[in-house]
Amino acid sequence: MFDAGQSEKLDADPPAWPYAATGQQVTRRKEGPAVQALDDMTDWAGLMARVRDHQDRAAFAALFRHFAPRVKSFLMKSGADATLAEECAQDVMATLWHKAHLFDSSRASVATWIFTIARNRRIDALRKARRPEPEELDWGPTAEPDGADLFESRQETSRLGAALAQLPDKQRALIERAYFGDLSHGELAAETGLPLGTIKSRIRLALEKLRQQMS
Amino acid sequence: MTIRHHLSDQLLMSYAAGDLPEAFNLVVATHISLCDECRAQLAAFEVVGGAVLDRCDLATMGDESLTACFARIDSLPNTPVTARRPARRDGLFPAPLAEYVGVDLGRVKWRSVGAGVRQAILPTGKGASARLLHIPAGQAVPDHGHRGMELTLVLQGAFRDDSDRFGPGDVEIADQATEHTPVAEAGMDCICLAATDAPLRFNGLIPRLAQPFFRI
After folding, report:
1. DSSP-derived secondary structure letter, A2
2. What's the total number of domains in chain A?
3. How far apart are the C-alpha atoms of A58 and B146, rounded to whole Å?
4. Are the beta carbons of A131 and B48 separated by less than 8 Å?
5. What is the CATH number of the domain that holds A122?
Protein backbone atom coordinates (compact mmCIF):
# COMPACT_ATOMS: atom_id res chain seq x y z
CA MET A 1 0.00 0.00 0.00
CA PHE A 2 2.81 2.34 0.80
CA ASP A 3 5.10 1.14 -1.87
CA ALA A 4 6.40 4.42 -3.14
CA GLY A 5 8.10 2.79 -6.07
CA GLN A 6 11.07 4.69 -7.34
CA SER A 7 11.17 7.25 -4.57
CA GLU A 8 11.22 4.46 -2.01
CA LYS A 9 14.45 3.16 -3.47
CA LEU A 10 15.92 6.63 -3.51
CA ASP A 11 14.91 7.17 0.09
CA ALA A 12 16.99 4.20 1.03
CA ASP A 13 20.13 5.98 -0.12
CA PRO A 14 22.03 8.09 2.38
CA PRO A 15 20.53 11.58 2.71
CA ALA A 16 22.10 13.90 0.24
CA TRP A 17 23.23 17.41 1.03
CA PRO A 18 22.59 19.25 -2.17
CA TYR A 19 23.11 22.57 -0.50
CA ALA A 20 26.89 21.93 -0.49
CA ALA A 21 29.34 24.77 -0.17
CA THR A 22 28.11 27.36 -2.61
CA GLY A 23 24.41 27.25 -1.93
CA GLN A 24 23.83 27.67 -5.61
CA GLN A 25 23.23 24.04 -6.42
CA VAL A 26 19.70 24.07 -5.19
CA THR A 27 18.05 26.10 -7.87
CA ARG A 28 14.62 25.96 -9.37
CA ARG A 29 14.24 22.60 -11.04
CA LYS A 30 12.07 21.73 -13.97
CA GLU A 31 9.27 19.38 -13.10
CA GLY A 32 9.50 15.80 -14.28
CA PRO A 33 10.00 12.31 -12.90
CA ALA A 34 13.78 12.53 -12.60
CA VAL A 35 13.45 15.93 -10.98
CA GLN A 36 10.83 14.71 -8.53
CA ALA A 37 13.45 12.26 -7.30
CA LEU A 38 15.85 15.15 -6.79
CA ASP A 39 13.28 16.90 -4.60
CA ASP A 40 12.99 13.80 -2.47
CA MET A 41 16.72 13.91 -1.95
CA THR A 42 16.84 17.54 -0.92
CA ASP A 43 17.68 17.97 2.73
CA TRP A 44 15.12 20.61 3.59
CA ALA A 45 15.77 20.17 7.32
CA GLY A 46 19.45 20.84 6.72
CA LEU A 47 18.57 24.06 4.91
CA MET A 48 16.29 25.00 7.83
CA ALA A 49 19.20 24.47 10.21
CA ARG A 50 21.32 26.87 8.14
CA VAL A 51 18.55 29.47 8.24
CA ARG A 52 18.28 29.03 12.00
CA ASP A 53 21.99 28.99 12.84
CA HIS A 54 23.45 31.33 10.22
CA GLN A 55 20.52 33.36 8.85
CA ASP A 56 21.68 31.85 5.57
CA ARG A 57 19.85 33.64 2.75
CA ALA A 58 20.89 31.21 0.03
CA ALA A 59 19.44 28.32 2.06
CA PHE A 60 16.26 30.32 2.59
CA ALA A 61 16.06 31.09 -1.13
CA ALA A 62 16.21 27.36 -1.90
CA LEU A 63 13.37 26.69 0.56
CA PHE A 64 11.43 29.60 -0.91
CA ARG A 65 11.75 28.37 -4.48
CA HIS A 66 10.44 24.97 -3.55
CA PHE A 67 7.74 25.78 -1.03
CA ALA A 68 6.44 29.29 -1.80
CA PRO A 69 4.77 28.32 -5.13
CA ARG A 70 3.17 25.35 -3.38
CA VAL A 71 1.94 27.47 -0.48
CA LYS A 72 0.50 30.00 -2.93
CA SER A 73 -1.22 27.22 -4.85
CA PHE A 74 -2.52 25.72 -1.57
CA LEU A 75 -4.00 29.08 -0.55
CA MET A 76 -5.60 29.64 -3.95
CA LYS A 77 -7.24 26.22 -3.73
CA SER A 78 -8.50 27.37 -0.33
CA GLY A 79 -10.30 30.26 -1.97
CA ALA A 80 -7.78 33.10 -1.89
CA ASP A 81 -7.33 35.16 -5.05
CA ALA A 82 -3.87 35.36 -6.61
CA THR A 83 -2.97 38.66 -4.94
CA LEU A 84 -3.96 37.57 -1.44
CA ALA A 85 -2.34 34.16 -1.94
CA GLU A 86 0.92 35.77 -3.06
CA GLU A 87 0.93 38.05 -0.05
CA CYS A 88 0.11 35.25 2.39
CA ALA A 89 2.68 32.92 0.81
CA GLN A 90 5.35 35.58 1.40
CA ASP A 91 4.06 35.92 4.94
CA VAL A 92 4.25 32.18 5.52
CA MET A 93 7.82 32.07 4.23
CA ALA A 94 8.80 35.10 6.36
CA THR A 95 7.33 33.26 9.37
CA LEU A 96 9.52 30.31 8.48
CA TRP A 97 12.54 32.61 8.81
CA HIS A 98 11.42 34.17 12.08
CA LYS A 99 10.37 30.88 13.66
CA ALA A 100 13.25 28.79 12.35
CA HIS A 101 14.40 28.17 15.95
CA LEU A 102 11.06 26.50 16.72
CA PHE A 103 11.34 23.95 13.94
CA ASP A 104 12.14 20.52 15.36
CA SER A 105 13.22 18.20 12.59
CA SER A 106 12.86 15.12 14.76
CA ARG A 107 9.14 15.77 15.12
CA ALA A 108 8.06 16.94 11.70
CA SER A 109 9.28 17.29 8.16
CA VAL A 110 9.71 20.79 6.74
CA ALA A 111 6.70 20.22 4.47
CA THR A 112 4.51 19.32 7.46
CA TRP A 113 5.72 22.30 9.45
CA ILE A 114 5.11 24.71 6.56
CA PHE A 115 1.66 23.18 6.12
CA THR A 116 0.79 24.08 9.74
CA ILE A 117 2.01 27.66 9.23
CA ALA A 118 0.07 27.98 5.96
CA ARG A 119 -3.04 26.49 7.58
CA ASN A 120 -2.89 28.99 10.44
CA ARG A 121 -2.32 31.84 8.00
CA ARG A 122 -5.32 30.68 5.98
CA ILE A 123 -7.50 30.57 9.08
CA ASP A 124 -6.39 34.09 10.05
CA ALA A 125 -6.83 35.52 6.56
CA LEU A 126 -9.89 33.75 5.25
CA ARG A 127 -11.84 32.42 8.16
CA LYS A 128 -10.93 34.79 10.94
CA ALA A 129 -11.79 31.98 13.36
CA ARG A 130 -9.78 31.27 16.47
CA ARG A 131 -8.08 27.89 16.63
CA PRO A 132 -6.92 27.09 20.16
CA GLU A 133 -3.78 24.93 20.24
CA PRO A 134 -3.11 22.04 22.64
CA GLU A 135 -0.66 22.47 25.48
CA GLU A 136 2.93 22.00 24.56
CA LEU A 137 4.36 18.68 25.71
CA ASP A 138 7.28 18.72 28.04
CA TRP A 139 9.75 17.00 25.78
CA GLY A 140 12.60 17.25 28.25
CA PRO A 141 16.06 18.31 27.16
CA THR A 142 16.07 18.05 23.39
CA ALA A 143 19.09 16.47 21.85
CA GLU A 144 20.13 17.42 18.37
CA PRO A 145 18.07 15.00 16.22
CA ASP A 146 20.14 12.26 14.69
CA GLY A 147 20.25 11.39 11.02
CA ALA A 148 17.78 8.55 11.40
CA ASP A 149 15.11 10.86 12.86
CA LEU A 150 15.58 13.42 10.11
CA PHE A 151 15.43 10.76 7.50
CA GLU A 152 12.31 9.28 9.03
CA SER A 153 10.19 12.43 9.15
CA ARG A 154 11.15 13.28 5.59
CA GLN A 155 10.31 9.76 4.50
CA GLU A 156 6.97 9.91 6.27
CA THR A 157 5.86 12.87 4.17
CA SER A 158 7.02 11.38 0.89
CA ARG A 159 5.49 7.99 1.69
CA LEU A 160 2.19 9.60 2.55
CA GLY A 161 2.44 11.61 -0.65
CA ALA A 162 2.91 8.34 -2.54
CA ALA A 163 -0.04 6.78 -0.67
CA LEU A 164 -2.20 9.77 -1.64
CA ALA A 165 -1.08 9.49 -5.24
CA GLN A 166 -2.21 5.88 -5.33
CA LEU A 167 -5.72 6.60 -4.08
CA PRO A 168 -8.59 6.63 -6.57
CA ASP A 169 -9.10 10.20 -7.82
CA LYS A 170 -12.39 10.73 -5.99
CA GLN A 171 -11.01 9.70 -2.62
CA ARG A 172 -7.84 11.73 -3.03
CA ALA A 173 -9.87 14.76 -4.04
CA LEU A 174 -11.93 14.37 -0.88
CA ILE A 175 -8.89 14.39 1.40
CA GLU A 176 -7.35 17.29 -0.49
CA ARG A 177 -10.57 19.29 -0.24
CA ALA A 178 -10.58 18.76 3.52
CA TYR A 179 -7.05 20.16 3.77
CA PHE A 180 -7.85 23.07 1.46
CA GLY A 181 -10.58 24.00 3.93
CA ASP A 182 -13.20 23.26 1.32
CA LEU A 183 -15.03 20.57 3.31
CA SER A 184 -16.90 21.32 6.51
CA HIS A 185 -16.60 18.95 9.47
CA GLY A 186 -20.24 18.03 8.90
CA GLU A 187 -19.56 17.01 5.31
CA LEU A 188 -16.48 15.15 6.46
CA ALA A 189 -18.36 13.31 9.20
CA ALA A 190 -21.13 12.39 6.76
CA GLU A 191 -18.63 11.13 4.23
CA THR A 192 -18.35 7.38 4.58
CA GLY A 193 -16.03 6.89 1.62
CA LEU A 194 -13.16 8.62 3.35
CA PRO A 195 -10.13 6.40 2.79
CA LEU A 196 -8.71 6.88 6.26
CA GLY A 197 -7.81 3.20 6.44
CA THR A 198 -5.19 3.85 3.81
CA ILE A 199 -3.29 6.20 6.05
CA LYS A 200 -3.89 4.28 9.25
CA SER A 201 -0.65 2.35 9.18
CA ARG A 202 1.24 5.62 8.82
CA ILE A 203 -0.58 6.92 11.85
CA ARG A 204 0.32 3.85 13.88
CA LEU A 205 3.98 4.35 13.00
CA ALA A 206 3.85 7.99 14.07
CA LEU A 207 2.30 6.91 17.36
CA GLU A 208 5.05 4.36 18.00
CA LYS A 209 7.65 6.98 17.28
CA LEU A 210 6.11 9.45 19.68
CA ARG A 211 5.86 6.85 22.43
CA GLN A 212 9.53 6.04 22.03
CA GLN A 213 10.42 9.70 22.28
CA MET A 214 8.35 10.18 25.42
CA SER A 215 9.53 7.07 27.23
CA MET B 1 -5.80 9.47 33.75
CA THR B 2 -7.04 6.52 31.74
CA ILE B 3 -8.86 7.80 28.70
CA ARG B 4 -11.24 5.37 27.03
CA HIS B 5 -13.27 7.60 24.76
CA HIS B 6 -11.24 9.43 22.14
CA LEU B 7 -11.77 11.90 19.33
CA SER B 8 -12.80 10.41 15.99
CA ASP B 9 -10.48 10.36 12.99
CA GLN B 10 -12.84 12.75 11.23
CA LEU B 11 -12.58 15.28 14.04
CA LEU B 12 -8.80 14.98 14.29
CA MET B 13 -8.46 15.35 10.54
CA SER B 14 -10.80 18.35 10.47
CA TYR B 15 -8.83 19.96 13.29
CA ALA B 16 -5.51 19.25 11.53
CA ALA B 17 -6.94 20.71 8.33
CA GLY B 18 -8.30 23.77 10.15
CA ASP B 19 -11.91 23.10 9.18
CA LEU B 20 -13.64 23.19 12.57
CA PRO B 21 -15.58 26.04 14.19
CA GLU B 22 -13.88 27.59 17.20
CA ALA B 23 -15.98 25.79 19.85
CA PHE B 24 -15.01 22.36 18.47
CA ASN B 25 -11.39 23.48 18.12
CA LEU B 26 -11.47 24.28 21.82
CA VAL B 27 -12.74 20.82 22.80
CA VAL B 28 -10.22 19.11 20.52
CA ALA B 29 -7.29 21.18 21.80
CA THR B 30 -8.34 20.57 25.42
CA HIS B 31 -8.70 16.82 24.92
CA ILE B 32 -5.35 16.58 23.13
CA SER B 33 -3.75 18.42 26.04
CA LEU B 34 -4.82 15.43 28.15
CA CYS B 35 -4.45 12.57 25.66
CA ASP B 36 -1.13 11.49 24.16
CA GLU B 37 -2.77 9.03 21.81
CA CYS B 38 -4.91 11.65 20.09
CA ARG B 39 -1.91 13.99 20.09
CA ALA B 40 0.05 11.44 18.08
CA GLN B 41 -2.88 10.86 15.74
CA LEU B 42 -3.11 14.60 15.20
CA ALA B 43 0.60 14.70 14.35
CA ALA B 44 -0.03 12.01 11.74
CA PHE B 45 -2.92 13.98 10.23
CA GLU B 46 -0.64 17.01 10.04
CA VAL B 47 1.84 14.88 8.09
CA VAL B 48 -1.01 14.22 5.65
CA GLY B 49 -1.33 18.00 5.37
CA GLY B 50 2.38 18.25 4.60
CA ALA B 51 1.98 15.64 1.88
CA VAL B 52 -1.05 17.47 0.42
CA LEU B 53 0.94 20.73 0.39
CA ASP B 54 3.93 19.06 -1.19
CA ARG B 55 1.73 17.63 -3.92
CA CYS B 56 0.20 20.99 -4.83
CA ASP B 57 0.95 22.18 -8.33
CA LEU B 58 3.20 25.22 -8.54
CA ALA B 59 1.57 28.63 -8.66
CA THR B 60 3.46 31.30 -10.55
CA MET B 61 5.05 33.65 -8.05
CA GLY B 62 4.98 37.37 -8.62
CA ASP B 63 8.02 39.15 -10.06
CA GLU B 64 10.69 39.72 -7.44
CA SER B 65 8.69 37.65 -4.99
CA LEU B 66 11.77 36.43 -3.14
CA THR B 67 13.16 39.96 -2.91
CA ALA B 68 9.83 41.15 -1.54
CA CYS B 69 9.92 38.33 1.01
CA PHE B 70 13.41 39.31 2.18
CA ALA B 71 12.16 42.90 2.49
CA ARG B 72 9.35 41.58 4.69
CA ILE B 73 11.83 39.63 6.79
CA ASP B 74 14.11 42.67 7.17
CA SER B 75 11.23 44.95 8.11
CA LEU B 76 10.55 42.93 11.26
CA PRO B 77 12.87 42.89 14.26
CA ASN B 78 14.92 39.73 14.27
CA THR B 79 14.02 38.74 17.80
CA PRO B 80 13.06 35.12 18.31
CA VAL B 81 9.33 34.56 18.07
CA THR B 82 7.99 32.59 20.99
CA ALA B 83 5.98 29.44 20.57
CA ARG B 84 2.32 29.87 19.74
CA ARG B 85 1.26 26.95 21.88
CA PRO B 86 0.42 27.50 25.51
CA ALA B 87 2.73 25.92 28.09
CA ARG B 88 1.83 22.88 30.13
CA ARG B 89 0.06 23.71 33.35
CA ASP B 90 -1.43 21.91 36.31
CA GLY B 91 -4.97 22.37 37.49
CA LEU B 92 -8.46 21.45 36.42
CA PHE B 93 -8.42 23.43 33.19
CA PRO B 94 -5.81 22.58 30.55
CA ALA B 95 -4.16 25.68 29.05
CA PRO B 96 -6.33 26.14 25.95
CA LEU B 97 -9.47 26.10 28.11
CA ALA B 98 -7.91 28.26 30.82
CA GLU B 99 -7.51 30.98 28.18
CA TYR B 100 -11.30 31.13 27.97
CA VAL B 101 -12.42 30.63 31.58
CA GLY B 102 -9.47 31.58 33.78
CA VAL B 103 -7.16 29.29 35.64
CA ASP B 104 -9.51 27.87 38.24
CA LEU B 105 -13.11 27.08 39.04
CA GLY B 106 -13.50 30.14 41.25
CA ARG B 107 -13.29 32.42 38.23
CA VAL B 108 -16.08 30.76 36.27
CA LYS B 109 -19.25 32.85 36.01
CA TRP B 110 -21.89 30.17 36.42
CA ARG B 111 -25.60 30.55 35.71
CA SER B 112 -28.19 28.14 36.99
CA VAL B 113 -30.19 26.25 34.40
CA GLY B 114 -32.38 24.43 36.93
CA ALA B 115 -32.24 21.13 38.84
CA GLY B 116 -28.90 22.17 40.34
CA VAL B 117 -27.21 22.18 36.95
CA ARG B 118 -25.12 25.25 36.18
CA GLN B 119 -23.48 26.37 32.98
CA ALA B 120 -21.16 29.05 31.67
CA ILE B 121 -21.31 29.89 27.99
CA LEU B 122 -17.88 30.60 26.53
CA PRO B 123 -17.23 33.31 23.97
CA THR B 124 -16.59 31.51 20.68
CA GLY B 125 -17.09 32.39 17.05
CA LYS B 126 -19.88 31.38 14.73
CA GLY B 127 -20.70 27.84 13.69
CA ALA B 128 -20.86 26.22 17.12
CA SER B 129 -21.14 27.15 20.78
CA ALA B 130 -19.18 26.00 23.82
CA ARG B 131 -20.05 25.94 27.49
CA LEU B 132 -18.89 24.56 30.78
CA LEU B 133 -21.40 22.40 32.61
CA HIS B 134 -21.49 21.78 36.34
CA ILE B 135 -23.69 18.82 37.28
CA PRO B 136 -24.11 17.93 40.96
CA ALA B 137 -23.03 14.41 41.89
CA GLY B 138 -25.84 11.93 41.27
CA GLN B 139 -27.89 14.44 39.29
CA ALA B 140 -29.32 13.69 35.84
CA VAL B 141 -28.96 16.14 33.00
CA PRO B 142 -32.46 16.56 31.54
CA ASP B 143 -33.22 13.98 28.89
CA HIS B 144 -32.09 15.44 25.63
CA GLY B 145 -31.44 14.64 22.01
CA HIS B 146 -29.34 16.58 19.55
CA ARG B 147 -29.98 18.31 16.27
CA GLY B 148 -26.35 18.50 15.23
CA MET B 149 -23.11 17.19 16.65
CA GLU B 150 -22.25 17.58 20.32
CA LEU B 151 -18.88 16.93 21.94
CA THR B 152 -18.74 16.56 25.72
CA LEU B 153 -15.35 16.39 27.42
CA VAL B 154 -15.25 15.40 31.10
CA LEU B 155 -12.87 17.49 33.22
CA GLN B 156 -13.86 16.31 36.68
CA GLY B 157 -16.05 13.52 38.05
CA ALA B 158 -17.84 11.24 35.62
CA PHE B 159 -21.19 10.69 33.97
CA ARG B 160 -22.98 7.64 32.73
CA ASP B 161 -25.62 7.27 30.09
CA ASP B 162 -27.47 4.25 28.79
CA SER B 163 -24.42 3.00 26.93
CA ASP B 164 -21.27 3.86 28.82
CA ARG B 165 -19.28 5.68 31.48
CA PHE B 166 -17.33 8.84 30.74
CA GLY B 167 -14.58 9.84 33.17
CA PRO B 168 -11.94 12.58 33.21
CA GLY B 169 -10.43 13.15 29.78
CA ASP B 170 -13.10 11.10 28.00
CA VAL B 171 -14.99 12.76 25.19
CA GLU B 172 -18.48 11.76 24.13
CA ILE B 173 -19.41 12.38 20.51
CA ALA B 174 -23.20 12.60 20.10
CA ASP B 175 -25.17 13.18 16.93
CA GLN B 176 -28.80 13.23 15.80
CA ALA B 177 -29.18 9.54 16.58
CA THR B 178 -28.14 9.98 20.22
CA GLU B 179 -31.01 10.29 22.64
CA HIS B 180 -29.87 9.78 26.20
CA THR B 181 -30.04 10.74 29.84
CA PRO B 182 -26.58 11.37 31.19
CA VAL B 183 -26.31 11.07 34.98
CA ALA B 184 -23.40 12.42 37.02
CA GLU B 185 -21.82 9.72 39.16
CA ALA B 186 -22.23 9.88 42.89
CA GLY B 187 -19.32 11.12 44.97
CA MET B 188 -18.11 14.11 42.97
CA ASP B 189 -19.74 16.89 40.98
CA CYS B 190 -19.18 16.46 37.28
CA ILE B 191 -17.65 19.30 35.29
CA CYS B 192 -17.67 19.07 31.50
CA LEU B 193 -16.77 21.17 28.51
CA ALA B 194 -19.45 20.77 25.84
CA ALA B 195 -19.64 22.11 22.32
CA THR B 196 -22.45 21.81 19.83
CA ASP B 197 -23.19 23.08 16.35
CA ALA B 198 -26.93 23.19 17.05
CA PRO B 199 -29.05 24.17 20.05
CA LEU B 200 -29.88 21.25 22.33
CA ARG B 201 -33.51 20.17 22.43
CA PHE B 202 -34.97 18.94 25.66
CA ASN B 203 -37.72 16.37 25.71
CA GLY B 204 -39.47 17.66 28.82
CA LEU B 205 -41.96 20.52 28.34
CA ILE B 206 -40.57 22.91 30.93
CA PRO B 207 -36.95 22.78 29.87
CA ARG B 208 -38.02 23.31 26.27
CA LEU B 209 -39.88 26.46 27.22
CA ALA B 210 -36.90 27.61 29.23
CA GLN B 211 -34.50 26.95 26.41
CA PRO B 212 -34.58 30.38 24.73
CA PHE B 213 -33.84 32.05 28.04
CA PHE B 214 -30.94 29.89 29.03
CA ARG B 215 -29.42 29.49 25.58
CA ILE B 216 -29.00 25.79 25.95
Report:
1. -
2. 1
3. 56
4. no
5. 1.10.1740.10
Whether residue A1 lies inside any domain: the answer is no
- Amino acid of residue B23: A
Chain B, residues 79-118, CB within 8 A of chain A, namely 80-81, 83-89, 94-96, 99-100
Between A142 and B164, the more confident residue is B164
Chain B: residue nearest A39 by CA? Answer: B54
Kindly state whether B47 is in contact with chain A, defined as any CB-CB distance less than 8 angstroms: yes
Measuring CA to CA, how many Å separate A171 from each of A164, A174, A180, A196, A198?
A: 9, 5, 14, 10, 10
All residues at 6 or more sequence positions from A184 whose CB lies less than 8 Å from its CB, including other chains = B19
Q: How far apart are CA A120 and CA A88, in angstroms?
A: 11
Return the residue of B nearest to A30 by Cα.
Answer: B58
Tell me the per-residue pLDDT of A8-46, one tens digit each, with 9 for 90 and over.
333 333 333 333 333 333 344 444 444 444 455 688 999
Domain count across chain B: 1
Interface test with A, best of B9, B28, B45, B69 (most A CBs within 10 A): B69
Q: Do B47 and A91 touch (CB under 8 A)?
A: no
Compare B134 and B126 and report the one with higher pLDDT: B134
Residue A111 domain boundaries = 6-214
The helix/strand/coil state of A195 is coil
Which of B1, B20, B41, B53 should we substitute to test contact with A (largest number of A Cβ atoms within 10 Å)? B53
Instruction: Look up the CATH number of the domain holding residue B149.
Output: 2.60.120.10
Of the candidates A57, A112, A138, which has its C-beta nearest B46's C-beta?
A112
Domain range for B5: 1-216
**Residues of chain B with pLDDT > 90: what percent?**
51
User: Measured between CB atoms, which of B40, B56, B99 is closest to A206?
Assistant: B40
Judge whether A38 lies within some domain. yes
